[in-house]
Structure formats: C-alpha cells, structure tokens
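User: Structure with pyridoxal-5'-phosphate, tokens only please.
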Amino acid sequence: MEHHSNIVPWQMLCERTGAILKVIPMNKEGELVMEEYAELLSDKTKLVFCNHVSNALGTINPIAEIIKKAHGVGAAVLIDGAQAAPHIVADVQALDVDFYTCSAHKMCGPTGVGILYGKEEWLKKLPPYQGGGEMIVEVTFEKTTYADLPHKFEAGTPNICGGIAFGAALDYMHQIGFKDIAGYEAELLDYATQELLKIEGLKIYGTAKNKTSVISFNIEGIHPYDIGTILG
Ligand SMILES: Cc1ncc(COP(=O)(O)O)c(C=O)c1O
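Assistant:
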C-alpha cells in the first residue's frame, strides 16, 4: 500500500536512532486493519505515517480516525498526500494533521518540487536539515542564526522555476475545479472497473470500499510486463 518514499526514509531514521518501525496490517481488499492499528499504538509511539491514498491500490485511508487515535497517545502524524492531492482536497487544519506532503508531478506540475505542510509548532522545533545560503539571518565563523520559517528549511538557491511552474499547474487544476475532477474520475473508475471485470482471468488488486481512480490488475497467464508494455 505504501510508496517506497514513505518506507525508506523511516528505515534510515531507525538505523540512525534505534527507533522501531511497526507496520499496520491490511486486509485482502487493501484496507488498513484499524483494530490492529489501535493495538500497535502505545505511549512509546512517536510518529504515525501512511498515505492518504495508495498509488498502488487506490485505497483512501481513514486518515481523520488515524490522526485522532495517534494524537490520543501523544504521537505526531505525517500523511503522504502525493496520490491524494490531485483527487481529494485535504483540509489540513480540520484534520489536525501534523505534516502533510504532496508532489508537484502528480498535479500536472514539474518534477523535483512539492509541498511540505507542517504545523508551525513542529516546524519551529525542528532543526534545519540542510545548511547553506538564504536560510540564515547572520553568519560568523563562530555562530550562525537561522532565518524564520519557512526559510530555515530552504538552504541554497531554490528551485524557482519549479515553484512558478507548480503554481501555474495548481491554478490550472483550480480552474477546472477539484470537485469536478473528483466527480469525473469517480465515473471513469466505475466504468473502467465494470468493463475490465468482463475480461476473462482479470483480477483487480485493491477493492477497498473507499477508493480513488487507480486500478491495479493481473490477467492470468500473461506477464504484467507484457500487458504494461502493450497498454503503454
Ligand atoms: C503515494 C506516493 N507517495 C510518494 C510518491 C513519491 O513522490 P516523490 O517521487 O516526489 O518523492 C509517489 C509517487 O510519485 C506516490 O504515489
């Protein structure tokens, strides 16, 4: 269900700090098993993370409930919104999520640029993860003072072109309207699912009750690479 980008960094963090990574199981439909999630939480849990929508299965995760339960044990929550952002508008303040991330390339924008939303209290507490120009107030050989948010996290000459292009992509999506996009995609998803299931030997992976327009499938006896190449 998770993209590597929401697994690998946490494994690296575990190696560095000795933290333990625990995985919420999912059922055959491709939904998180919420009862098991509740059992995994304890006062030792520091951070809970998952995607809002799975790029592999299309599952929409019940993030409001996930966030509420995590906060109940004092854990922070990071939601990977890369696959969700083009399909669902997440109200980060109503959700009370601590961190929410999106990638521009999933929203008609360029590669190598994205969004990190974080609660101000967290971003103030976190140290810069890179050092360089632009992110400082004052530098001497003895000591550096960092600039205010968000510049503290923007070391070096930024990806200016990427930022402008992402802005244009978001304006374009807003012009069409996120509600209309979601409605049209839901129609396509229903139609495609219905038609695909008419193909003999076709099995869809990811049949969550709550899903967006992603369909993963296999056709018995045909290598997925061949199908992918032909359809591509
Ligand atoms: C759910 C999800 N998370 C993360 C990513 C990776 O984003 P990036 O390559 O911008 O880090 C993707 C796909 O690109 C994705 O679908």
